[in-house]
Amino acid sequence: MSGAAKEFLDVWTLQQDHHAPLSDTEAGMLAEQWESDAQENGIAVADLRVAAGGDIAAFLQRTFGRDGAELEI
């Protein structure tokens, strides 16, 4: 994993600190956007995926929450 990929995830996560929980579809679309943005910044998608633990959409849902996963009382 490159340090740049980890830094990219850290910075982008902090910039979207108050993001609402994501549905699977939203997480997938946001993951595609982050992959594209990373490439534009010279970061290989493979490195970004490694930094995210293998799956960027899953990383986003771990970070921001998964829509529908909240406990209902």
Explain what the structure shows.
There is one protein chain. With 73 residues, the chain is an all-alpha fold. Helices cover 63% and strands 0% of the residues. It contains 4 helices and no strands. The chain has helices at 3-15, 24-40, 45-51, 56-64. 23% of the residues are buried. The model has no long low-confidence stretch (mean pLDDT 89).
**What coarse outline follows from CA principal-axis ratios?**
globular
Largest beta-sheet details? none
Q: Kindly state the mean pLDDT as a whole number?
A: 89
Question: Helix fraction?
Answer: 55-70%
SSE topology string:
HHHH
- Rounded to an integer in angstroms, the radius of gyration calculated over CA atoms is 12 Å
Question: What is the number of strand segments?
Answer: 0
Q: What is the number of helical segments per DSSP (H or I, 4+ residues)? A: 4
How would you classify the helix and strand content by structural class?
A: mainly alpha
Which runs of at least 5 residues are low in confidence (pLDDT < 50)? none
In whole angstroms, the N-to-C terminal distance is 41 Å
β-strand percent reads under 5%
